[in-house]
Write a structure and sequence with these properties.
Layout: H1 5-24, H2 35-47, H3 51-57, H4 63-97, E1 100-103, H5 106-111, E2 124-128, H6 134-143, E3 146-151, E4 156-160, E5 178-182, E6 186-188, E7 193-195, H7 197-200, E8 208-210, H8 215-231, H9 237-247, H10 271-280, H11 287-293, H12 299-305, H13 332-343, H14 347-359, H15 367-370, H16 373-382, H17 388-400
Helix pairs in contact: 1-2, 2-17, 3-4, 8-9, 9-10
């Protein structure tokens, strides 16, 4: 049985914001939380992907909390070795067939030494290939024991033929390693697509796994990915930490990569994630970068991004949002399309939802997700609806302790 949802909502907000402060500036006294709040803190740490980092950086000595963090770090370190072994196999196979790929996000953050093994969880491996190499990449993954699970507009997801998801709180060493295959690096914010593929794919790639062309290219991808998560109310603390760590390696010239040299477009979408990083990690982001982007961001988004908290734009916010991301619209027409798509989902959105229900453990057995859209819409209009992904982790945390 869950405790009253008002207590869960308040506890998630309090613990999320406290964990964010502790990760950014370690050394705070252990909070005076009750048993439920410590349980919700473990749920928040899992949702935001920071349990193993907190094991290293936080000295809070609650016994059950310490055991949980230490266990998470062990699982993540073991899983990291599995991922590293798989990346080596992918690299060798790609070299043998002359196929160029880019290992994205978490793989690169580890490769350049921003994280040690066991510090940062990786849910899957992300790979970028050229459109004309998509089928060759699929064949390569199939040769490694993978099968295509489903396709979304952003990527194709492959899963191992052998292995099932492990139901537990947080990371588990035996969780299958999925692979997401991309041919474009893009996000819908919330309707118009921002595409930065040309900045990410090397101009002269070599067979095998390639690095990003520069730290600026990596930062562009991290910020666009963060923008997509902010727009969809799924921001994670680990993403803020990624950006803050990479920012310490950025020269003034590196930040120039945010601006597209080919068409002169401003990275207006980078302002909200940069502001959020600056809120929790003071002095991480150069003021000059923020000032250069601010005029190109819409007044509504610019105003909202000044005061949004991590809780409000993440899974730590317990209630579903009726119109997530509408504040990112660049025009009234785009806002209207956002409302229309919410009232009458596209066929693509329906298929994506069906794939999620079929493949995601946290949606299994949940009657809400299989209701007709009209019933869900009526429910939204009459009462607050909790997020299924959040409730799943909360239940696992309560059971775990």
């Amino acid at each position: 049985m869950l405790p009253p949802l008002r207590l869960v909502k308040a506890g998630l907000r309090r613990t999320t914001e406290t964990l964010a402060q502790e990760l950014a500036r370690p050394g705070n006294p252990a909070p005076d939380w009750n048993e439920l709040e410590w349980q919700l803190a473990s749920a928040a740490a899992v949702v935001h992907g920071v349990s193993p980092l907190l094991c290293h950086y936080s000295s809070w000595q609650n016994p059950a909390w310490r055991r949980f963090l230490e266990s998470q770090r062990e699982h993540v370190e073991y899983r990291h070795q599995r991922i590293a072994d798989l990346l080596r196999r992918i690299d060798a196979e790609a070299r043998s067939v002359g196929l160029a790929m880019v290992a994205l996000k978490g793989s690169t953050l580890h490769a350049i030494g921003l994280y040690a093994p066991g510090e940062r969880p990786m849910a899957d491996i992300d790979l970028l290939v050229r459109e004309e190499d998509r089928e060759a990449a699929s064949v390569l993954l199939q040769s490694l024991g993978y099968v295509e699970s489903f396709t979304q507009w952003k990527h194709r997801t492959f899963k191992p033929v052998i292995g099932e998801p492990v139901v537990c709180l947080g990371e588990h060493r035996d969780t299958p390693i999925n692979i997401e295959l991309h041919t474009r690096i893009q996000e819908r914010l919330p309707i118009s697509t921002v595409d930065i593929t040309d900045r990410i794919y090397p101009s002269q790639p070599s067979p095998g796994l390639n690095p990003y062309p520069s730290n600026g290219a990596l930062m562009s991808h991290l910020l666009l990915h963060a923008a997509g998560n902010l727009c969809g109310r799924s921001m994670r603390l680990i993403h803020l930490n990624d950006i803050s760590l990479l920012a310490t390696r950025m020269l003034a010239s590196d930040w120039q990569a945010l601006w597209d040299e080919h068409n002169g477009e401003s990275p207006w979408w980078a302002l909200p994630p940069l502001r959020m990083v600056a809120r929790y990690y003071p002095n991480a982001i150069p003021r000059a970068v923020l000032e250069r982007i601010e005029p190109d961001c819409t007044p509504v988004l610019r105003a909202l991004s000044r005061r949004q908290t991590l809780t409000q734009v993440s899974c730590s916010a317990l209630w579903l949002s009726a119109l997530p991301g509408i504040e990112w619209s660049r025009s009234m027409r785009e806002a209207g399309r956002c409302v229309k798509n919410r009232l009458k989902p596209t066929e693509e959105a329906k298929q994506e939802r069906a794939d999620m229900v079929r493949t995601q453990v946290w949606l299994q057995g949940q009657s809400w997700v299989t209701l007709k859209h009209s019933r869900r819409l009526l429910t939204w209009l009459t009462r607050p609806v909790p997020r299924m992904d959040t409730l799943y982790v909360v239940r696992e945390a309560l059971d775990h302790f």
